Amino acid sequence: MAMKQNNSVQSARVPVAQFTPEMKKTHTILIPMMLPIHFEMIEHVLRKNGYRTELLRNEGSNIATEGLKNVHNDTCYPALLVIGQMMDALHSGKYDPHKIAFMITQTGGGCRASNYIYLLRKALVKSGYGYIPVVAINFAALGNDSESGFQITIPMLYEIAHSIVMGDMLMCLHNQCRPYELHPGDTDRVTNKWIGEINRILDGKASTLAHRLLACYPQIVKDYDNIHRAKERKIRVGVVGEIYVKYSPLGNNNLERFLISEGAEPVVPGLMDFMLYCVYNGIEDQQLYGGSRKKTIGSQLLYRYLVGKQRQVIKAIRKQGSFNPPGCFADTLEMVEGYISKGVKMGEGWLLTAEMVELIHSGVDNIVCTQPFGCLPNHIAGKGMIRAIKEKNPEANIIAVDYDPGASEVNQQNRIKLMLATAAVREKEKKRQAKKKGNAFRLGAGFSEREWIC
pLDDT, tens digit, for every residue of 30-39? Predict the structure, then answer.
């Protein structure tokens, strides 16, 4: 009996195909898309360091269909889409299965995203492609394999960090121009121009990278400001939620494009906030649970450096004066006090609450909280915190939208339209009150209190 049980355990194990050093020259690493602007630059860093890579851009209903074939439908929606996108690319006939590898991230901790790599490997074996290697980008050193042919070096991390900083800057300015552009396509042209320019800068020496990127900030803001835009001000809508569904057009049914088509301006917090959240949790862990002091000091130094880079972007945008700068993570940390404990860090954890509070403090009262159906961290730190946020901020207009292969896109859009309708009524009332106060001020100008009353 014991022997049978051992054999069943052995057969249940999923074979692991290694990405060997030799594959660096022969294999193309396929990367699932999440953030189009950021990933263009991150992919360039990987290519610069000798890896052959390609971002997957396939989309459509067949992605979810492929995901459902290979992943249990109780698994979270991002896993279903990411693995579905990879399997769809594999079955497209575009690639030689013996000359490709897949790249996927692991978050670590109790989030189901930690298991994406095992789900993908299982799907490949089930489909007869168990020989295709899966490269893991690991945030918590889970399953780290020193023998792998894919290694992220310190210089690569340095370049990727700057790619994220620049991606956040371009995304922030892009979203403030796209809804107002008078000539369709102008914003995309400026964004694509600067992605190319930044990639050329990334090709230079690492020792002068930060200085050369910083020197570009004024010109970047100026180029976006030169886009011919309408003078009207549209309703600003913040987008928060689970990291993949929040950022990926595939995951949120092109939410940003839909908001623009409905006459709104999307406001999306940057990816650097999530990076800082991960780094800050290392500091918070030492205070809450103890641990390595050396590791904490390293986290503190990295935190200060990244916050400093974020503040440089904010300063450059604020100095120009035409655009709203993103929030600073250090300030957001203070705003979230009294709402949720920083010990709540499963998935997006307390960051999700913090982003909503920061958006409201910056004047963005209307928020769409995107979440995969059944995502426990988001249902607690996102949807579960809406009431507490509204109690302290009555002007907040927040809705939570579930994304799932069984969810109706029409129902999702109708819920968002209802939120926008509420926002429009409130905006109209604000203008009416402001006009009323302005008329009262002009009527009373130059008269004494008695004369004004009479």
Answer: 999 999 999 9
Comparison of pLDDT for 138 and 356, the residue scoring more: 356
Report the phi/psi class of residue 173: left, alpha or beta, with left for phi > 0 and alpha for psi in -120 to 50.
Answer: alpha
CB-CB contact of 41 with 33 (8 Å): no
Q: Percent of the chain at pLDDT above 90?
A: 61
| pLDDT band per the 50, 70, 90 thresholds, residue 289 | confident
Q: Which of 36, 382, 417, 403 is nearest to 264 (CA)?
A: 417
The residues spanned by each domain of the chain are 16-144
Pairing of strands 100-106, 28-31: parallel
Q: What is the DSSP string of 191-256?
A: HHHHHHHHHHHHTS-GGGHHHHHHHHHHHHHHHHHTS-B-S--PEEEEEEESHHHHH-TTTTTSHH
Q: What is the dihedral of CA 299, 305, 309, 311, to 10 degrees?
A: 90
pLDDT per position as a tens digit, 108-123: 667 777 778 888 999 9
CA dist list (Å): 417 to 13, 66, 150, 254, 403: 47, 30, 45, 15, 16
How many of the other CB atoms lie within 10 Å of CB of 74?
9
| CATH domain 16-144 topology | Rossmann fold (3.40.50)
Q: Which residues contact 388 (CB under 8 A, 6 or more apart)?
A: 339, 340
